[in-house]
Amino acid sequence: MFCSIKSPAQRRFVRVCWMSGGLVAVLAVAAAAAFRLWHLKGLLAYPVAVLPALPILWVLIETGRYLALEKDEFQRNLMVQCLLGGIGGTLAVTTVWGYMEDFARAPRLDLIWVYPIFWLFVGIAMPVVYRRYR
Amino acid sequence: MKNRLKVLRAERDWSQADLAERLEVSRQSVNAIETGKFDPSLPLAFKLARLFGLRIEEIFLDEEQLG
User: Fold this and answer.
1) How far is C-alpha A109 from the chain's CA centre?
2) Which of residues 23-42 of B touch A (CB under 8 A)?
3) Which of A67, A101, A117, B48 is deepest in the core (most CB within 10 A)?
């Protein structure tokens, strides 16, 4: 989608995604270190555990903001289609896997994987959507 | 939706990029509209009409009416 980034909204969104990726890595390492060093438990454990998720929430908010700020309606439409691909793919995988866990004793899929799975499907949807309008 | 964008653009010797710049959209947007793969919103259609000095129905063709 953003092969040739043109609009300020696209530039902002891509910048946020990169910054968020870096922040997730840093905060995940910091949270893991905090748990290892101080053996956090109880109420204090929750906010520290949530730390790596904050940049992810930031990206989700910025995704909505991108759709609001993008003035090019065609680009906005492409993004919406890619996001729908991501939502559909994620729902499909997690639902199918859920039944496999329940009935076939498949390995447990941690919820932490839902977010990467979503963006994986967004990434898969992008070339498909783009090819349609080539 | 079928349209006369390519002809109108050619009459003015504008490239897709030129038209995109005038409309403040991406070149891909102009290409998608021109090839009938993407229907613009009313505000964008009005913007196109203003730019070419025509009415919307002189740019976009009502396929149902054409049969």
Assistant:
1) 16
2) 24-26, 28-29, 31-33, 37-38, 40-41
3) B48
